[in-house]
Fold:
Amino acid sequence: MKVVMLQTSPEFGEVDRNLDDIDRRLEGVQADLVVLPELCTTGYQFRDRAELGACAEAADGRTVERMCGRAAACGGHLVFGFAERAGGRVYNAAAVVGPDGPLGTYRKVHLFADEKRLFDPGDGGFPVFDLGGVPVGIMVCFDWIFPEAARSLALQGALVIAHPANLVLRYCQDAMVTRAIENRIFTVTVNRVGTEERVPGARLTFTGSSRLVAPDGAVLADAAPDGPALLYAEIDPRRAREKHVTTTNHVLTDRRPDQYRLGRFNPDGTDSEP
Amino acid sequence: MKVVMLQTSPEFGEVDRNLDDIDRRLEGVQADLVVLPELCTTGYQFRDRAELGACAEAADGRTVERMCGRAAACGGHLVFGFAERAGGRVYNAAAVVGPDGPLGTYRKVHLFADEKRLFDPGDGGFPVFDLGGVPVGIMVCFDWIFPEAARSLALQGALVIAHPANLVLRYCQDAMVTRAIENRIFTVTVNRVGTEERVPGARLTFTGSSRLVAPDGAVLADAAPDGPALLYAEIDPRRAREKHVTTTNHVLTDRRPDQYRLGRFNPDGTDSEP
Structure:
């Protein structure tokens, strides 16, 4: 499986120009899976919900349609972040598209910082898509900090996690090694670069350093912290079917859910559910 | 809270000598919490269950009694690994002892490699002990690879995780940074050093590198990969009450259990429970 990671620097609000840029950078690229950043066609720092609403599109809208064309040209699937309008709601979503059209979207479950006042939280869990016979799970950016996200994907059989991101903190890239190891899964984190300061005083600098991590924690591809980048890696997703870390230890079947306390947290310091 | 980490190199089967060594190394040390390695009085590589049984002790046995004396001398609590006999069972346990006596044990839930044929798996979940007003959770060695272990402790209000270990792989030390960040908790991993080859051809080299990680991922103390070591760190456990990574993102209350799929894994690639 040939995986391509396209780290970009979108211009805020310039959807056509960003799509053109993506098209140009992917010109001639053949791949089974191309992963792009979160909100890669719109930019990130919306001032308010009205401004976001003006940029949001349906899951069968023009952006998705153009990306389907690009998927056809690449001969594989694309996973990319966009602002999805559905009814009166707007999600920070990732679309999965193939040569034959869109396969669906993932709507970000854990919203970060100001996203909470802009986007609606996703309620569709963490989906796994069959991409040419390979189960690929999706999560977006800040989902990384919740081990439950990657775990949910691995438990549903995902062998690869496509992870569009707009990271401003610097923790995630290293943490993805842990996510890969603890689930024995491939992780493909594609971040953006550049800065935005559309809200005065709230300058955001995106940390780049997109990376692909193998199930044993080896970093197979690593981008610079700045500048757009196109990275390739050839992976064998079947390696992620082997969940053993020793001959007798399987990271998923060794789990003991009856011994865990994973309910809700109460601020008084105790969880409410067994 | 003054935390002391004692990285040791036990001699297999020499319980008295190992206890003497610990006593000598802790001579004059004052601390609120002292963490020692897994199985720090017996050594690790038991050939069979009979040999293990001969070294195992009750939770009110001589080893725990001696450690209580050391706790009194240190003026605080000790967490250390030992082989616990209870009825016909033997657990890979960690005891928590204070100046006034033993507080209880944690029995390792996730057994590693040959431990599966030697020890009985713990069935008491992941306990949190009140040590002088600070909730301290316990896990042992290989529990690190299951994010559910540290998460269960954090959700029960632990501010510090005492983590005795006998690590032979090299993944854990880095992964503890992720465990600390994702739970905004202090982690105190105390590993052993040295080698054992009591089973011919199955030489084990323990990787040392004990480390204490703060809730923001900062490594506050880091031991060498070889040689015994005594490390000190002064921590403020209240820092781990602050679970926000941004003003609006709390790593525990932002969790969305209804969106996760954390049931059992079926080898056919789907989980059986919602």
